[in-house]
Amino acid sequence: MAHRIYTTSFASVYPLYVAKAERKGRTKDEVDTIIRWLTGYDEAGLERQLAAEVDFDTFFATAPKMNEDRALIKGVVCGVRVENVEEPLMREIRYLDKLVDELAKGKAMAKILRGGDV
């Protein structure tokens, strides 16, 4: 059975990512940088996806180019090790969750992006 988050609008969760970062002194631009690094969307592409209110499944399925370095993302989100999540879409969602968590915890952007650039 598919998880409910797959059919949830990405645009409905996006403000929660931004709010989490901002509560810890980080910015919306930094959240956007992380999302663009992970998915390959450019600024306009991300804005289009948000405006279209696509679900998580569509958001990741239509991503221009998932970053190959995302496999370097390790750690626990919601009590689950992201590298052990077997279902591909859930793993992508957990990668994003982990990156936002790292941002909110004050980690340097270069480390969050695994040494890469946007």
Largest sheet: 2 strands, antiparallel
Radius of gyration computed on alpha carbons: 13 Å
CATH classification, class level: Mainly Alpha
Oligomer: single chain
Question: How many domain regions?
Answer: 1
Order of helices and strands: HHHHEEHH
CATH architecture: Orthogonal Bundle
Judging from the principal axes of the Cα atoms, what is the shape? globular
Overall helicity: 40-55%
Point out poorly predicted stretches: none
Please state the average pLDDT score.
Answer: 93
CATH superfamily membership: uncharacterized protein sp1917 domain
Number of strand elements = 2
Backbone structural class: mainly alpha
Strand order of the largest sheet: 1-2
* Count of DSSP-assigned helices: 6
